């Protein structure tokens, strides 16, 4: 493909279920609200089941379908790899070797070795390689990043992050690919923990550095689950929950955890940052709000991040007319496609995602050894 695609961009997407639909929705919304966004043609949808794929392409607005990703990567101006974790590596590397820009879902890969190969492919390609950590593009998180960058919190001392869901509480919930180490790499650690580790890097990485050492613990509560539509069961080979204590280069400390067994929590992604001069708290379940304590205040102030001068606010509704989870994908797609068009860097890059993968790998090693480990 051409190294500098002209508009409209032909976009190819691997995957059409949950996350694929979220990105297709975002691509459709872009021209309605972001007048300076590149024009996009939803060109090719890639999947394995041709009949289901054709139905999805019609519903999601794609012109073509392909049952082999190799038929798409050279034909489009940008390739979205939204498949399960075990198919992140090969299609993404192939696209980058063809100098086709890639947006790959998180975590970057199921293993550190695969993530390293993807990072290296990005480093030698002329194309942009981005990892889809969509929570960076929540307006309240962008607002928090501005406060921290401006020094409003002072010296960062504590980072706390948790991601709690409860969709596996029922032991009869069916087996799926996210419960396989071969297909997913990790369970709650990779699926949810990757988001939290990346969000912490985005918010405070410039002030505390990388994680120097950590202690991690993984736990699986249900060892096997029924296979839907059969009388069989399959082994669960990933963690259901993790916890980790970390120490940063600066001496700041952190605590992270995630669980898919947290009864009563549907999608509770929370992060807290505490500094010498202030603190902030964010919860995805109240994603338009940021709890902020700065200066001489005796308590937290709830800031509704929906004004026109707030991040992305000018593109949406009047103040107080809140946004939702799906809007994070609109913002992410806007930034990615503008970066491709303009030749600008994009973060999180494959390099950023590799650093997250190093932390995930270290947590697994710590659990296996039963001791603190340093990141190499």
Describe, in plain words, how this protein is organized in 3D.
The chain has 376 residues and is α/β, with parallel strands linked by helices. The protein has two domains: 9-135, NAD(P)-binding Rossmann-like Domain (Rossmann fold, 3-Layer(aba) Sandwich), CATH 3.40.50.720; 139-286 and 288-323 and 349-374, Dihydrodipicolinate Reductase, domain 2. The protein is built from nine helices and 17 strands. The strands form three sheets. Strands 16-15-14-13-7-12-11-8-17 form a nine-stranded mixed sheet. Strand 4, helix 3 (89-97) and strand 5 (102-105) form a beta-alpha-beta unit. Helix 4 (112-124) runs antiparallel to helix 9 and helix 7 packs across helix 9. It is globular and about 60 Å long. The model has no long low-confidence stretch (mean pLDDT 96).
Task: Give the radius of gyration.
Answer: 21 Å
Coarse morphology: globular
CATH hierarchy: architecture of the largest domain: 2-Layer Sandwich
N-to-C span: 37 Å
> How many distinct beta strands?
17
* CATH topological fold name of the largest domain: Dihydrodipicolinate Reductase, domain 2
């Amino acid at each position: 493909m051409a190294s500098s695609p002209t508009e409209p961009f032909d976009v190819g997407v691997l995957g059409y279920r949950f996350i694929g639909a979220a990105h297709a929705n975002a691509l459709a919304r872009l021209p309605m609200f972001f007048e300076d966004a590149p024009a996009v043609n939803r060109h090719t949808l890639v999947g394995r089941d041709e009949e289901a794929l054709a139905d999805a392409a019609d519903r999601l607005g794609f012109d073509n379908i392909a049952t082999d990703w190799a038929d798409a990567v050279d034909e489009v101006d940008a390739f979205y790899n939204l498949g399960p974790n075990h198919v992140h590596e090969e299609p993404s590397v192939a696209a980058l070797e063809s100098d086709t820009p890639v947006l790959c879902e998180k975590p970057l890969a199921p293993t550190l070795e695969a993530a390293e190969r993807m990072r290296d492919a990005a480093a030698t390609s002329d194309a942009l390689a981005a990892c889809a950590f969509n929570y960076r593009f929540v307006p309240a998180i962008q607002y928090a990043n501005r406060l921290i960058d401006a020094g409003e919190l002072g010296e960062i001392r504590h980072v706390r992050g948790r991601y709690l869901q409860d969709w596996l509480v029922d032991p009869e919930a069916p087996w799926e690919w996210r419960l396989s180490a071969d297909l997913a790499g990790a369970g709650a650690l990779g699926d949810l923990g990757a988001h939290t580790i990346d969000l912490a890097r985005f918010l405070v990485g410039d002030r505390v550095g990388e994680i120097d050492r950590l202690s991690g613990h993984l736990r699986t509560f249900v060892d096997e689950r029924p296979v839907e539509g059969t009388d069989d069961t399959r082994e669960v080979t990933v963690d259901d929950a993790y916890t980790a204590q970390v120490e940063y280069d600066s001496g700041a400390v952190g605590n992270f955890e995630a669980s898919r067994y947290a009864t009563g929590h549907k999608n509770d992604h929370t992060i807290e940052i505490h500094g010498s001069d202030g603190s902030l708290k964010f919860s995805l379940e109240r994603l338009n709000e940021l709890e902020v304590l700065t200066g001489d205040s005796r308590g937290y102030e709830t800031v509704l991040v929906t004004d026109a001068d707030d991040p992305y606010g000018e593109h949406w509704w009047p103040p107080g007319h809140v946004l939702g989870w799906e809007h994070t994908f609109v913002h992410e797609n806007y930034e990615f496609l503008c970066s491709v068009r303009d030749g600008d860097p994009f973060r999180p890059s494959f390099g950023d995602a590799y650093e997250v993968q190093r932390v995930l790998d270290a947590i697994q090693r710590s659990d296996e050894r039963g001791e603190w480990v340093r990141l190499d």
